[in-house]
Amino acid sequence: MYTRLYHDLDVGDYVELIIKAKVSDEVLCGMFIARLVDKGNITIPKGLRDAMHLEKDSIVEVIVAKAYRLNELLGDRAEIIRHLSLSKYHLDDLSPDEELKLFSE
Q1: Distance between CA 90 and CA 18 in Å, rounded?
Q2: Burial tier of 15 (Cβ tally within 10 Å: 0-12, 13-18, 19+)
Q3: What pLDDT does 1 receive?
Q4: Residue of 82, 71, 80, 13 whose CA lies nearest to 41
Q5: Per residue in 65-93, is it b (16+ CB within 10 Å) or e — as a string?
Q6: What is this structure's pTM?
Q7: How would you write the pLDDT of the chain (105 residues) with one tens digit per residue?
Q8: What's residue 24's pLDDT?
Q9: CA 105 and chain centroid, separation
Q10: Is 60 helix (H, G, I), strand (E, B) or coil?
Q11: How many other β-carbons are positioned within 10 Å of the β-carbon of residue 44?
């Protein structure tokens, strides 16, 4: 089962992640916050990969420490942000109500 399904996470949600990797005889640990993109993928930041000496084929342990759901953070505005995250733009004509909703709150 996918971790994002288990935690009920969706595109646009944020997660605090702990990364552990064994390098030589030492276990290195790092933490970062990531935004879930299409298919729930995340990327370990390059600076953290470099600091932990991670290569493309490195095996890492990933622990979800905390999740921030877009719906809980943004309420009604979450759906349009999620849509824009997936498609990168919005081509359809905006109705006056949709346009007003973007500027409200």
Answers
A1: 34
A2: buried
A3: 45
A4: 13
A5: eebebbeeeeeeebeeebeebeeeeeeee
A6: 0.66
A7: 477 777 778 777 888 999 999 988 889 999 999 988 776 678 899 999 999 999 888 899 999 899 888 777 777 776 766 666 655 555 556 677 777 776 665
A8: 86
A9: 24
A10: coil
A11: 18
Q: Rounded to an integer, what distance in angstroms lies between the CA atom of residue 55 and that of residue 50?
A: 8
Half-sphere CA count of 65, side-chain side, radius 13 A: 11
For residue 34, give both structure tokens: 């990531």
Q: Which long-range contacts (C-beta less than 8 Å, at least 24 apart) are formed by 66-71? A: 66/15, 66/16, 67/7, 67/9, 67/13, 67/14, 67/15, 67/16, 68/13, 68/14, 68/15, 69/8, 69/9, 69/10, 69/13, 70/10, 70/12, 70/13, 70/14
Provide the token pair at 67. Answer: 């999740």
pLDDT in the model for residue 83: 63
Judged by DSSP in three states, 39 sits in helix
